[in-house]
Specification:
The longest helix is centred in the last third of the chain and has 16 residues. Strands 1-2-3-4-5-6-8-7 form an eight-stranded mixed β-sheet, sandwiched between helices. The chain has about 180 residues and is of the alpha+beta class. Helices cover about 25% and strands about 35% of the residues. Bound molecules: coenzyme A. Coenzyme A (COA) binds next to strand 5, helix 4 and helix 5.
């Protein structure tokens, strides 16, 4: 296994007849994308809420991920509209493992099964195409939506980081989840 696997940067993965995952490029960074990142409702369960995002900073981030040898940053496109992202990375080829994270920025698409379908598709790609054996992720304990998405995709809770983060002035736990290929 080596980083040659990640050279296909214009990669697209079909999720279903409406949803497409596409490696996101700088030209696709839009004002709505930046607005999602500055929207507390979207980012409150992530570390993004501590940053002020601009068109410039978002393009820089997308560029960095585009040229990274161990990250795949996909935009989630529904009928051609960019509505969020899902990232596989960092990938550790030496351990055949990777982290995964995602967000749906366009709130009208919440609760429609998009995150679940995209995560299932990314797992399939990671396991079948990249040969990875382990995928891990984490979420704030009170992020019920994300907890359910991971559970529906076959992730199991592997650990709790007690009192790990501050959420709205209260210390709360983080949950570590993993998907293991047997
Ligand atoms: C959390 C998030 C990814 C869920 O995405 P989604 O596409 O709305 O999720 P799905 O529609 O696939 O829902 C999967 C399940 O979770 C449930 N769910 C989703 N959001 C929920 C919420 N806020 N509260 C309770 N349940 C929720 C759904 O009802 C569904 O359960 P079911 O199949 O038993 O009915 C999305 O709301 C989001 O991006 N939020 C902001 C960013 C974020 O939290 N990212 C994850 C950081 S770990």
């Amino acid at each position: 296994m080596n980083t040659e696997n990640l050279k296909k940067k214009n990669m697209e993965i079909k999720v279903d007849e409406n949803i497409l995952l596409k490696i996101i490029i700088m030209e696709e960074v839009s004002d709505p994308y930046v607005q999602w990142l500055n929207d507390y409702e979207v980012t409150k369960f992530t570390e993004q809420k501590y940053l002020k995002h601009t068109l410039e900073s978002t393009k820089d981030y997308v560029k960095k991920k585009y040229y990274s040898n161990n990250d795949l940053l996909f935009g989630i496109f529904v009928k051609g509209l960019h509505i969020g992202n899902i990232k596989l990375g960092p990938i550790k080829f030496e351990h055949m493992s990777a982290e995964v994270s995602y967000f749906i920025g366009e709130k009208k698409f919440w609760g429609k099964g998009v995150a679940t379908k995209c995560l299932q598709t990314i797992i399939q790609y990671a396991v079948i195409d990249l040969g990875l054996k382990k995928i891990h992720a984490g979420y704030y304990e009170n992020n019920i939506g994300s907890a359910r998405v991971f559970q529906k995709c076959g992730f199991v809770v592997e650990g709790i980081k007690y009192s790990d983060v501050i959420f709205e002035q209260k210390r709360i736990n983080s949950v570590m989840v993993g998907y293991l290929v047997k």
